[in-house]
Fold this protein.
Amino acid sequence: MMDRHTSHLHNDYVDGLLSEKQASEVDNHADSCEKCREDLNQLRNLKDRLAAIDAPDPGLEYFERLSEKVAERTHSITNESNSKSVNIKPVSASQAVLKTLIRVAAAITLLFGSFYASDFLSGNNQSPNSDNWAVLEYNIPDPIALPDSEHQQPPPSAVDEESIDKEDSDTEN
Amino acid sequence: MFAQKSKRFVTLIDGRDIIGMTEETTALVLLFQKGDRKAFTKLVKIFRQRVYGLAFKMLKNHIDADEVAQETFVRVYKRIGQLKSPVHFDSFIYRIASNYAIDLIRKRKGRIVAMPEESELPGSVQLTLATKVTSPEKVLENKQLLQAIVKAAEELPPRQQTTLILHDIEGLSKEEVARIMNCPEATVRSNLHIARNKLKKKLAKLLTS
Ligand SMILES: [Zn+2]
């Protein structure tokens, strides 16, 4: 190989986060390295495909019904932390007949069993903490200031087998 | 480069595109915090499609997406007083929605749901891949790639999955994702790279063209 592979820079490259110097380093290397060129193409392709994914539109009728359900469900609730000023007005949202308009759950047919898994990149392009959730201390005040109290931690057994999804960053606050 | 989703609100302030909260929405949040129920109703209307869309992308079925959407707004209603910064209402609502969706993903995991064949569902709702191609082969190829991407993404741990969905599918910035997921941007970046690299490895053959 002429020079070092640049795969560790490719994610930032496709996100436009590299300096001009770094970006041209990637470009120049890719000109002469098929492996990195291919990796960049795959990454761009993946990113484009992901950006094109969209949820279905269940239709205005569904959304109107959703609004009604929310109105019904919040009708008798007093805002927890602002109760003194919450002024709850009666809602006439309980129309008797609501058409069941929503079709059944979606099916995502999962056809693919196996893929060629190249070992390229498996070793050297990941950040030091690899699959682990950052072990970083996160002391920046949360601008939303929303305690994740509703987000209860599952028992360890319920967490991903590989335990690569440690919820460190969920538990602060 | 990568087009922002058109369904998101874009407003021009000082010549800059601000995606997400507009002054109008912020004003509604303030009214809502003062107890104005009509403002809440309007906010539900403004955000319901986005919340449903995010939930659907995370859970891939309508029933769960509907549950997340409903529950999210109920929780928003209960907790609006905790939101210190009304301009971040969108992150607030996304956080509530994605946390609830993550909980559902965990609950659903290991429980094998028999998915009916797509063809058996005449108006079935499913994720779609915007495509400009016209040949039937290309359409099939795109569909297969979408299914493969969705399957591979589902195998990611929930928070990696969520990071990928918020950043690469929803088109949110790392800063926004960090706020929603209450973690440093470095964590978002790292998890995003891990998630993409896993997908790339699994889908190498399909992504090469
Ligand atoms: Zn190379």
